[in-house]
Structures are given as structure tokens and as C-alpha cells.
Design a protein that fits this description.
Two copies of one chain form a homodimer. Chain A is an alpha/beta fold. Chain A has a single domain, classed as Aldolase class I (TIM Barrel). Chain A has 13 helices and ten strands. In chain A, helix 2 packs across helix 3 and helix 6 packs parallel to helix 7. Chains A and B meet through helix 3, helix 4, helix 5, helix 6 and strand 4 of A and helix 3, helix 4, helix 5, helix 6 and strand 4 of B. Chains A, B: Belongs to the OMP decarboxylase family. Type 2 subfamily.
Chain lengths: 317, 317
């Protein structure tokens, strides 16, 4: 099961962190871009090749420290077909290094169209009756629940059949997430609570040996109080926590998404790791050429930050 | 403005129809697949080339009859990088035939990530300070509002700056759409009503010369009563109507999404057009070799069906 593999990866590396691979051009050191632009041209292909090179160097620097990476599809789609090629190459490379891959696509649709999305990321595409081929080779996908169960079930089928996982948006980290998610229904429940109840139900058929489900949820670190409530509703759900660092969430805020067993959540960091060499913490120690070393240092710093907060916070639970 | 171009396309062709390009392998005649599998192999590339050929023949058969096409991204993503190439080629070909392209991707995210998605479909990707390149060249994109305004505004900025459009999911055509969308808040309003009020507000800055906005909405034909209410809330929104035909919505059901000016909605048909040659209506008249002629016949039948229902229905309004 996906969730068992994820938990074992977290335990093995003693690190509940997923590194977001959101490779904006401005993050990539000039020496990489200069090289790929020279070789492939000042075009989408040149950008895509720079992304591949940058991601590979980040992965090389961190694969022994974190269980998983989370490429954000938007940052690949914006480079067109070449960008999607870069996404695919990144996933293949991450896989070769033993990393679990959570594709952040927030995909959503209904019926056979949801099946097609699930096929793309979590399934196997049928070419012919005998021949099947994987479109992309990832382990889990973020999905959006606006369309209800019709939009979720096809993904869950692939979680069951192919040992994959999903993370359903429940309470997102952004300021305006409340416009819809915080609305309170006539039963005195908020939308995010109702979604959490669905996530709990949907996840039951894919519960693994540690008591967690391959149907997880996204709950932003920027809403620690809501996280506490949601943690209690979705007892079996692994929570993917965005919003640590750059968006203002602290390690202490993240603790609310964990359970007493020290499991239950995985915290994402994207910019703070990819751009560590530009950050106030690391910029004096590492120059652009040493960007990957800065990323490694930041991953270690974050791991210690989270583990300290967990030691402190879980004792108080 | 996008919406003015869409309305002029609808008026010129006297047809408020958008043809969905959802090219499942089972829809594509054997003679096309045999050819591309022979040339490119029994693999994702072979499928992608079959899709391109199939779509081009459909487009050739219908481009003078409809204003717009709506490729559904899921059916391209499921063929990996090659599938995205097929999406891109399809868009380029449709554009060369003067068609408006609505990419059905239901994209959603926040802040700079939403900007990246918008960039991919509605914007221009910056390669370098001087050089910009389009990732994909489409006119509009469907988007999902679960994350609130932070997830919508970046797309609206491109609607303003680049004369593009979006269609925001409000009430989707599927059975379980009510699980979230029909929930009633303590103000006695349903989620779909509240989303419709947002769509109305969000759309104001991009209102065109016919009084409609480039911020449209998706409201399924399968919910005609809700459509009537939503039509009255979102006075300026163009409504993209899925669910006609295969999903059970009738032309009469679609009329509720139009206004008295005969404008305000565009009805999607995917399977009924792409698979017309297999349908009970057309299978005796057209064989597999003539599949595109069957699609053309179905587009004409649907146009007449919608226009009759509009003549009848709008008189009663």
C-alpha cells in the first residue's frame, strides 16, 4: 500500500518532510540556465532542460534525507510540452533514487474523465487489449473535491488496484480559502469539516498496516486550530501540510496535524529548500555554485526544527 | 475581449455549441489506429498520433458549423508527454481553422502557482527578460473555485491582460455534485448560489460590449431548475453547459441557461459528436470510414435541436 511505503520512508529517514519541486526560472542558478540556453536555445526547451538539471542536483543533495518529493505540475505546464517532458524526467530520476513522488496537480473531474486523470498519474494506460503503458510514474496525486464522490472514486480505485495514494484538498493554506471552505451549513458544520468526514469515509477501503489510509488530505499549516479539529475527524488520513516556512506556518503549527504515534502528517517545503542558497539563513555560507549544498543544509535544519517541535508538542498532547 | 469573440462566433455560425474533443481510443476508427500504430509503434506515441489525426478530421468536418472546441486535458494527459504534444497540435490545428479553444482542465491552485497555470494556458511564459513564448495557445480555461479568490484572480488578470476567458465550476452535471455544491449555509444559500455570486463579482472587470463577462461559469444541463436560478444570479456570465445528450440533458433543459437576448450559454457535446458514427441515429448511414461526415451530421442535428428549443423556450420566458 502507498501509505505503508510512505510511513516506512518517513520512519527510515526520521523525517516527515516532502520537498516540493516547484522550479521557477528565478530559482535556478545562472550557470545552469546559461548552459542549457546555449545548448537548446532561449526557448521553452532551454527552460525545460534547465529545470531537469536543477531538479536532479537538488534530488542528488537530498534523496538520502527525505522520503518524498512533490513536483507541482503548474510549474512544468507553463513550459508547454517541453515542460511536461521535464516533469516526466524529474519523476523518473526521483524514482531511480528511491524517492516517493506526490504529483501536485489538484486534478478533478467526473466519471470517465476522472478515470482518465487517474490513469495518467496513478494508473496504466491501455494502448491495445494486450499492451499497457504508464503515462507518468508517480505514487500519489493531490485532488480537488468540489465535484463530490464521482470525482474522487475513480482515483480511489487506482489507490486500491495499483497501490497509489491521493491527498484531497480539505483546508488550503491561502488567505481566501475560507470563502468557500469556512462556510457553515445549517447543520452547524463548516465545509472543511464535511469534506474531512468524506475523506475519512472514502479512505476506509485503503487502510494500511499502520492504521492510516492511502486517501490523505491537504490541510495548511497556516490554520493550526482548524488542523487540530480536522486531525480528530480524519483519524486515518495522512495530512499533507503546505504553508511551512515561506507562507508563515511554523513547526509548532505543523504539530497539530500529527498524532500521538508521531505519524499522521508530512510537511511540505518548496521555496525554502529550492532557494536555500538565496535565503537569509544560508546565503553567506553557500554561493550559487553550491546551491544544492544549501538545499541539503536547509533540509537538515527543517528536519531538526520539525522533530524538536514534535518532541515538545506531542508530549503536551 | 474573449467573450465578445465567443459571442460573435456563436452569432456568425448561428450555433451556441462547443464540440468537446475527448478522444478516447475506443472512439477512434480502426483504420486510423492501424496506420499510426504501424508508423509509430503500439505505444503512447502511436496513440497520440492517432488522436491528432482523428481530431483533425473531426475539426475539418465541423469548423464551419461551430464557434468553438473544448479539448479535455485528461484525455491527453493519459498518454503522457506524447499526449500533451497531441493536445498542443490539436489546439494549433483548431486555431488555424478559426476556432475558439476552451481548454477543459479545471485547474486550481493559489498565488504564484495559480499564476503558473494561468501562464500555461492564458498567458505568456517568460524565458528571459526580453523573450516570451506561449506554452499552449488557447482562448479560455475551465477552473475550480474550491480555493477561493486567491485561486481565481491570477486567471482573471490574464483575462484582462491577454483577452482570455475562464469558466468557473459552479454546479456540475454529475450525480454527486450536490455533496458539496448543494449544501445550504446558515444564510439559507446553497454553495452553488454563493459561488455564482462570486462569479458575478469576479466577472465585472472583464465585461464586454454585449454585456457579458469573460468570466463564465459551468452549470450542468442535468440541473435545469438550478440553472434557472443561477442564470438570474450571474446576469453577466456566459454559461458553459455540459451534460447535453449522453449525460441525459435535453435541448429544453439547456434553454434555462440562456437569456432573452438568445445569448448567455454555450452547450457542449463531446461523445455524441465524436462517436456519431457509432450512434443509433447515424450508424446505418455512415460507416467507420465516414466517421467525420457522421460528426458533421450530428452537429447540424444538434444545432437545429438547440435552435428549435430556444425559439420555443425563449418565447415562453
Amino acid at each position: 500500500m502507498f501509505i505503508d511505503r510512505l510511513i516506512e520512508g518517513i520512519q527510515e529517514k526520521d523525517n516527515p518532510t516532502v520537498v516540493g519541486l516547484d522550479p521557477k526560472m528565478e530559482y535556478i542558478p545562472a550557470f545552469i540556465k546559461d548552459k542549457t540556453f546555449k545548448e537548446y536555445g532561449l526557448n521553452l526547451k532551454g527552460c525545460a532542460e534547465a529545470i531537469i538539471e536543477f531538479n536532479k542536483m537538488i534530488i542528488d543533495a537530498i534523496y538520502d534525507l527525505v522520503p518524498a518529493v512533490k513536483p507541482q505540475l503548474a510549474y512544468y505546464e507553463m513550459y508547454g510540452v517541453d515542460g511536461i517532458y521535464a516533469f516526466d524526467e524529474t519523476c523518473k530520476y526521483a524514482k531511480s533514487k528511491g524517492l516517493i513522488i506526490i504529483a501536485d496537480g489538484k486534478r478533478n473531474d467526473i466519471g470517465t474523465t476522472a478515470e482518465a486523470y487517474s490513469n495518467a498519474f496513478l494508473g496504466i494506460t491501455e494502448i491495445d487489449k494486450q499492451i499497457k503503458q504508464k503515462a507518468f510514474d508517480v505514487d500519489a496525486l493531490t485532488v480537488n473535491p468540489y465535484l463530490g464522490e464521482d470525482g474522487i472514486k475513480p482515483f480511489i480505485n487506482d489507490c486500491i488496484n495499483n497501490e497509489k495514494g491521493i491527498f484531497v484538498l480539505v483546508k488550503t493554506s491561502n488567505k481566501s480559502s475560507g470563502q468557500l471552505q469556512d462556510l457553515v451549513t445549517q447543520n452547524c458544520k463548516s465545509i472543511y469539516e464535511i469534506m474531512a468526514e468524506y475523506v475519512y469515509e472514502w479512505g476506509k477501503p485503503v487502510t494500511g498496516k499502520y492504521g492510516y489510509s492511502s486517501v490523505g488530505a491537504v490541510v495548511g499549516a497556516t490554520y493550526p486550530n482548524q488542523a487540530k479539529l480536522l486531525r480528530s475527524i480524519m483519524k486515518k488520513a495522512y495530512i499533507l501540510v503546505p504553508g511551512y516556512g515561506a507562507q508563515g506556518g511554523t513547526a509548532r503549527d505543523c504539530v497539530n496535524s500529527f498524532q500521538k504515534d508521531r505519524l499522521g502528517a508530512i510537511v511540505n517545503a518548496s521555496r525554502s529548500v529550492m532557494c536555500a542558497y538565496k535565503s537569509d539563513i544560508w546565503k553567506n555560507e553557500y554561493n550559487e555554485q553550491k546551491f544544492a549544498d544549501a538545499s541539503r543544509a536547509e533540509v537538515i535544519r527543517m528536519k531538526n526544527d520539525l522533530n524538536s517541535a514534535l518532541n515538545e508538542g506531542l508530549n503536551q498532547k
